[in-house]
Specification:
Elements lengths: L1 H10 L5 E2 L2 E8 L2 E2 L6 E2 L4 E5 L4 E7 L7 E7 L12 H4 L1 H11 L1 H5 L9
Antiparallel strand pairs: 1-2, 2-5, 3-4, 5-6, 6-7
């Protein structure tokens, strides 16, 4: 699945539409340690949309096979009345987009996550 997403990095262009979201950029991000300056590449595939929403796919674990797929979904809601909403409800459009773009169910056979935090 991660290789599939990395292939999307090379094919995606700014302003591509993902449902109602407009892509600002997509990358396989690199992390630079602020203390020792070491660089770790291929840390996850990140989709950033023009409204600031982000979807990040990362593998957790030391091996590519059998690793845990982590999906981080973030969206800024300026409307203070929505800040206490259940995250699953507030982020549902982005969650649906993440599941669709990643083809997670096709790759893993899972219908739902084993952990939600």
């Amino acid at each position: 699945m991660i290789e599939y997403l990395r292939d999307l990095v090379s094919k995606s262009k700014p302003d591509n539409k993902y449902g109602s979201y407009t892509l600002q950029f997509v990358d396989d991000f690199t992390y630079t340690d602020p203390v020792d300056g070491s660089v770790a590449s291929k840390q996850g595939v990140r989709f950033v949309f023009s409204d600031g929403s982000r979807i990040l796919f990362r593998l957790s674990g030391t091996a590519a096979a059998g690793a845990t797929v982590r999906i981080y979904i973030e969206q800024f809601k300026p409307d203070v009345s929505k800040h206490d909403m259940n995250a699953q409800i507030a982020l549902k459009p982005l969650i649906d987009r993440a599941l669709s773009v990643s083809k997670l169910k096709d790759f893993t056979g899972r219908e739902k996550p084993t952990v939600i935090t």
